């Protein structure tokens, strides 16, 4: 992906809040993804199933590619935040936090955090792909997330299986998973707010009363769907192996397999 220095900060057409959150998420991921890879590699010794081990290795390769792409777009966007010094401080805090957890927390805790995050991203990826917000959108950030969310669904079962093989149970997974989901959302939004564009600066077609009403309805709809999907990940019988994937997931797979 190529990220021009002057690209629009609002990559989700007419939706500065969704766009700002996506940018904040991009700044969090280069610290989270190495943490996920460290956790998966540490869990290898506890997994006897060769197929699961192969999936864990592929997971690390995909996360490594995500890391590289988000580092690249972050380099382009970093100085365009409202407060670069505050953003840099948050990045240092995240790097130290994830490193500290790898070094001091039990492996089961790190795997439960990883699964809580991956369960949420699987649920939210389904909603985002179904919503069509990234569809026919040539903005580099939209293309980045279209590809990234597709790969999130490709490896949706890996952290769940790794946690299970490491002897983790339901109650602990759910408790740590709730913390992981809160941690991810709150930290991403803290950074995303530094890139929030005011509605008044959007082009006129995004300021009409009818567009604003439609945008508000879509936000509520997608928020409720995402919340419902996230809550289902905390049910005792939840398993990502049984998730119903949208048709647009297959379309995205075909699109990037041919690139």
Keywords for this structure?
single chain, 0% strand, 259 residues, mainly alpha
Number of strands: 0
The proportion of strand residues reads: under 5%
Radius of gyration: 18 Å
What does the overall shape look like?
Answer: globular
Low-confidence stretches: none
Helix fraction, binned, reads over 70%
In whole angstroms, the N-to-C terminal distance is 11 Å
**Most strands sheet:** none
**Count of DSSP helices?**
9
Query: Given the helix and strand composition, which structural class is it?
Result: mainly alpha
* String of helices and strands: HHHHHHHHH
Q: For the residues shown, what is the average pLDDT? A: 95
3D structure, described in words:
This protein is mainly α and 259 residues long. It is built from 9 helices and no strands. It has helices at 16-43, 50-77, 84-104, 107-131, 140-154, 158-165, 170-192, 209-232, 247-257. Helix 4 packs antiparallel against helix 6 (158-165) and helix 4 packs across helix 7 (170-192). The protein is globular, with a radius of gyration of 18 Å.
């Amino acid at each position: 992906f190529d990220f021009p220095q002057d690209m629009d900060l609002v990559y989700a057409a007419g939706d500065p809040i969704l766009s700002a959150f996506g940018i904040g998420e991009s700044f969090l991921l280069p610290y989270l993804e190495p943490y996920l890879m460290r956790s998966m590699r540490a869990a290898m010794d506890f997994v006897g199933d060769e197929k699961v081990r192969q999936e864990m290795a592929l997971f690390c390769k995909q996360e490594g590619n995500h890391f590289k792409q988000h580092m690249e777009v972050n380099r382009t966007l970093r100085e365009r935040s409202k407060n670069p010094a505050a953003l840099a401080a948050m990045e240092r805090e995240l790097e130290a936090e994830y490193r500290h957890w790898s070094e001091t927390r039990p492996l089961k805790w790190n795997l439960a955090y990883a699964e809580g995050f991956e369960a949420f991203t699987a649920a939210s990826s389904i909603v985002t792909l179904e919503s069509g917000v990234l569809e026919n959108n040539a903005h580099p950030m939209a293309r980045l997330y279209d590809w990234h969310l597709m790969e999130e669904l490709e490896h949706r079962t890996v952290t769940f299986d790794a946690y299970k093989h490491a002897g983790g149970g339901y109650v602990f997974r759910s408790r740590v998973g709730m913390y992981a989901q809160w941690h991810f959302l709150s930290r991403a939004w803290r950074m995303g707010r530094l890139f929030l564009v005011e509605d008044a600066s959007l082009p006129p077609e995004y300021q009409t009363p009818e567009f604003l009403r439609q945008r508000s309805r879509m936000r509520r709809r997608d928020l409720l769907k995402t919340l419902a999907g996230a809550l289902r990940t905390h049910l005792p019988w939840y398993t990502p192996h049984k998730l119903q994937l949208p048709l647009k997931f297959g379309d995205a797979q075909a699109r990037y397999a041919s690139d």
